[in-house]
Amino acid sequence: MQQLTLFPESASTLPVNYYPEFLNKEEADELYQHCQELQWKQNQIRMLGKTMPVPRLECIYGDEGCDYLYSKSVLLKPLPWTDPLAQLRDRITVTAGYNFRIVIGNQYRSGQDSIGWHNDSEASMGFNPAIASVSLGSVRKFQIKPIGGKPTDFWLEHGSLLVMLPGCQSTHLHQVPKTNKVVGTRINLTFRPHVGGKR
Ligand SMILES: O=C(O)CCC(=O)C(=O)O
Fold first, then answer.
1. Does residue 142 line the site of ligand 1, with CB under 6 A?
2. Which has the closest alpha carbon to 105: 136, 74, 127, 129?
3. Residue 137's domain spans which residues?
4. The predicted structure's pLDDT at residue 7
5. Considering the domain boundaries, does residue 155 fall inside one?
6. Global pTM exceeds 0.85
7. Is residue 197 part of a domain?
8. How far is the CA of 176 from the centre of ligand 1 (A)?
9. What CA–CA distance (Å, rounded) separates 177 from 182?
10. For position 13, what pLDDT does the model report?
C-alpha cells in the first residue's frame, strides 16, 4: 500500500516552505466555496506545433494590467481581486514575507487533469520570484525535483500552503501528475509577483 508522505523528510533540503495547516478546515471550506464562483476557463495551449486544451481549468485575478503569458501561447488577463482572494494574499504575505500581485487558479476536475514538469520562469514575474501555492479540496500528489535529480512527493492537503522560495524556479521543476485513482476536484491558487501593470 502506498504510504502517504504528508511531510517528506527531504523537504528540508528543498527551496520550499510548507505549512500543512495554513488554513483551518472551516476557513478552507469557505474559501473552496468562494472558488466555485470564480471565472474558470479551459484555455488552449500550443505545444510542438499543435493546439490542444490545457488539461485543467484556469482563472486569474490580480492588479490591473498584470497580464500573464505562459508557454508563449496562453495569455491570462486578470480580473479584479475578489475580497476573499485579496485577504488571503495579504495573510500569505504576513506569513511568508513576500508580496504578490496576481493569483492564478488551477482546477483539477478529476485524476486526468494535471500539470506536467515545468518551472515558472516567466519574465513578467521578475527575477527569482517567490510563488505561494494554496491547495483546496481533494489531495493530489505534487512533485518537485532538482533539474536532473530525483523527485520529492508532497500530498498537498486542503488548506495547506507551499511557498516556492526565490531561486526555486531556476533550479527545480514541479508537476501534479495524472492519476487513475478516483479523486475529487482539487483547486490550487498560486500567488505570484508581477513587474508590470498599474500600481
Ligand atoms: O496545482 C499545483 O499544486 C501546482 C500548480 C502549478 O504548478 C502552476 O500553476 O504552475
1. yes
2. 136
3. 9-192
4. 61
5. yes
6. yes
7. no
8. 7
9. 14
10. 84
